[in-house]
């Protein structure tokens, strides 16, 4: 795997961590400003920013038409994590959508040039 694909994979993973941290900061009580300055929210925003920097590195050599759809892999992970950590529903329709996303990402990632 090239360094650019590794940067893309790390950007996706880092973005995922950022999303989970933002959700964890959002579920507590209080108004928006208190939510914004919670440690989980601040860490989530910083992690999300780091993901953007890694994505920029990946875009140096990976076509955007491939890189951006590959980030959809995080949608799958977020749905599962949301279900496991936050008790969000994960019914048959969501499972079908996850399957379609996975198939689309695999098809696109394997497309030539």
Describe the fold and architecture.
The chain is mainly α and 113 residues long. The protein has six helices and no strands. The chain has helices at residues 3-26, 32-36, 39-59, 64-70, 73-86, 92-109. Helix 5 (73-86) packs antiparallel against helix 6 (92-109). The radius of gyration is 16 Å and the shape is flat.
Summary?
The protein is mainly α. 79% of the residues lie in helices and 0% in strands.
The poorly predicted ranges are: none
Helix-strand sequence: HHHHHH
Shape: flat
Number of E strands? 0
Could you tell me the mean pLDDT?
90
Oligomer: single chain
Helix content: over 70%
Distance between the termini: 16 Å
Rg of Cα set: 16 Å
The total of helices stands at 6
Strand content: under 5%
Content-based structural category:
mainly alpha
Largest sheet: none
Topology:
Layout: H1 3-26, H2 32-36, H3 39-59, H4 64-70, H5 73-86, H6 92-109
Helix pairs in contact: 1-3, 1-5, 4-6, 5-6
């Amino acid at each position: 795997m090239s360094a650019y694909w590794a940067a893309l994979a790390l950007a996706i993973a880092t973005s995922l961590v950022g999303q989970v941290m933002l959700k964890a900061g959002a579920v507590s009580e209080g108004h928006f400003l208190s939510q914004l300055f919670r440690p989980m929210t601040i860490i989530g925003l910083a992690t999300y920013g780091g993901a953007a920097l890694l994505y920029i590195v990946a875009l140096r050599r990976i076509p955007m038409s491939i890189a951006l759809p590959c980030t959809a892999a995080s949608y799958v992970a977020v749905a599962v994590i949301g279900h496991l950590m936050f008790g969000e529903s994960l019914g048959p329709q969501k499972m079908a959508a996850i399957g379609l996303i996975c198939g689309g990402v695999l098809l696109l990632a394997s497309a030539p040039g």
